[in-house]
């Protein structure tokens, strides 16, 4: 088994801990060393797993890493910081009760949670998060840092551009593109393309905010 460290000891970190335990229950795969987290001080244990220190603890160590941060912009910043420190081995985690169809590619560092469905001829980029019971239909593409919250749905041939986020229970209809670093609000139904940096809400979804270009780098 390969050593694994979870970066992020918040709520999503505990969900990823459960994901790792569920994977190991079916086939022992990961030796979980512990968590690292910038903000964590005490206690030095979380859900029975040690908190090893801040992410700098990883420098010079040989282990796989998974970044357990829900926000795509923050996840990207943390990955960039880790790579600058020499981290290169990002674990790809797929829950044993997720349904993954034929001709699906999954990039390094991505996570697919319990009860998620990815049907067929789908491409997922690096550091993509597909959360609990989300559905990605045929011929969809999710670019790097793309995020689907619980029960989000992409219908056939929809596309999430880099860093786009679809919140809980929202649906992107067939063939629609959601632009880079945009956000689809919870429960929305997207029937028209979403531009870069837009936030859309409602049924049908409409734009309520446009963030500044490159806001994710701030």
UniProtKB/TrEMBL annotation:
Pfam name, any one: PglD_N
Limits of the PglD N-terminal domain: 3-82
Stored CDD domains: LbH_AT_putative
InterPro entries named among the record's database cross-references: AcTrfase_PglD-like, PglD_N, Trans_hexapeptide_repeat, Trimer_LpxA-like_sf
Domain of life: Bacteria
Coiled-coil annotated residue ranges, if any: none
Family from the record: Belongs to the transferase hexapeptide repeat family.
Name this protein carries in UniProt: Acetyltransferase
Native source species: Viridibacterium curvum
């Amino acid at each position: 088994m390969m050593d694994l460290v979870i970066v992020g000891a918040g709520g999503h970190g505990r969900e990823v801990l459960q994901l790792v335990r569920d994977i190991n229950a079916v086939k022992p795969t990961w030796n979980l060393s512990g968590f690292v987290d910038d903000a964590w001080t005490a206690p030095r244990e979380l859900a029975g797993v040690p908190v090893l220190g801040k992410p700098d603890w990883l420098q010079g160590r040989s282990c796989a890493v998974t970044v357990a941060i829900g926000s795509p912009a923050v996840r990207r910043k943390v990955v960039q910081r880790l790579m600058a420190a020499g981290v290169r081995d990002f674990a790809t985690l797929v829950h044993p009760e997720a349904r993954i169809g034929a001709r699906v590619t999954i990039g390094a560092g991505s996570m697919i949670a319990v009860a998620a469905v990815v049907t067929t001829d789908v491409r997922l980029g690096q550091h993509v998060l597909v959360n609990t019971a989300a559905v990605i239909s045929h011929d969809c593409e999710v670019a790097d840092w793309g995020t689907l919250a619980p029960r989000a749905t992409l219908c056939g041939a929809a596309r999430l551009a880099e860093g786009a986020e679809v919140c809980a229970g929202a649906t992107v209809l067939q063939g629609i593109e959601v632009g880079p670093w945009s956000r689809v609000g919870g429960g929305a139904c997207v029937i028209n393309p979403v531009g870069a940096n837009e936030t859309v809400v409602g049924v049908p979804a409409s734009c309520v905010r446009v963030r500044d270009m490159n806001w994710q780098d701030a």
